[in-house]
């Protein structure tokens, strides 16, 4: 099945990374893929455009089925290969509800992380304000506290939605990884840092680690002053 | 089952509305609910806080299960009541992929609509820029064109993900409705306007129509100059 899959992706993009983790967890190694450089604007290529009117990565194709939104691709893969590899969405209603809840809360963490770490990248110079960045930082600090509290409450060694690795981890880990990488002070989220250490060597995550991070293990320090 | 459900919600909030539509479609009428006023800040109450650390609506409880993110609540309801009411996520892999794809693309449309219609509400006065609002408008116009194209391609009378009403419609209709309501020029998205007219009297949507919109059928004109 994996041979009929094609993923266009970029190194270090959380949406791309989550699709790659899902593919690994569902034992779909061997899928075709094409690494495109953001810096060289390669993701704006004709091949991507033909499959994705947003001209973004990830762009993912399985046979004739095209599904590009990262959450959509992950849910599709879980559904299409339910009994293969890791079960990422549990059947038990209470467990399932928590997986969904944490999955979608991830959008908050991702946006707030971007709003601080990539503020200068997203906001043109003449539109930047110290007051906005200060507000963004406060909001991110509160968000981290929330996630750290979730892990604290669930106890040592827990994944984001309980005792098992689930789709919540698939979608959120590629965001969480930016906190240690961009030098966030560990005291802002000690439980998340433990969680990061617990997951970073998981086979699906190791196999999909951004190649340009392997070349440059030390990230920039955009979250140093959080 | 519906008697063991409790929804805290606000009138006119797209995330709240989508949970209400899902409840109607899954034949879960009779759920308990509490309407909270944004204007009076009622959604910041202790009852909500006890169930939702983000202190937001929707806040949704089914027995002991709490699931507050609107997409999470909708997916949970579909899964827990799969064979009851309207089937919102089809089994066919290609159909399912498209439903997921449009569901998650909704976040783009919603954010871009907010970034124009509620720009002054979200951005403090000293941080507003004509250049940003202009960029937001261009981005929203392009986004509308994309959705209009999807409907155009699928043909007259089509729902967002094909011939049937699905979860894509549940999550996206409460965003699309803002375009006619806030006086968006119909020529910006003629197919979406037809889609709106086709859906506005659907029983699940009519039953969950924001009560303060019934009192004031004429909305403000924040999208008039799009």
Automatic annotation (TrEMBL), chains A, B:
Coiled coil: none
GST C-terminal domain boundaries: 92-226
MF terms (GO), sorted A to Z: glutathione transferase activity; maleylacetoacetate isomerase activity
Domain GST N-terminal positions: 3-85
Domain of life assignment: Eukaryota
Protein name per Swiss-Prot or TrEMBL: Glutathione S-transferase A-like
Record GO cellular component, one term: mitochondrion
GO biological process, one term: L-phenylalanine catabolic process
PANTHER family referenced in this protein's UniProt entry, alphabetically: MALEYLACETOACETATE ISOMERASE (PTHR42673)
Alphabetized InterPro entries for the sequence: Glutathione-S-Trfase_C-like, Glutathione-S-Trfase_C_sf, Glutathione_S-Trfase, Glutathione_S-Trfase_N, GST_C, Thioredoxin-like_sf
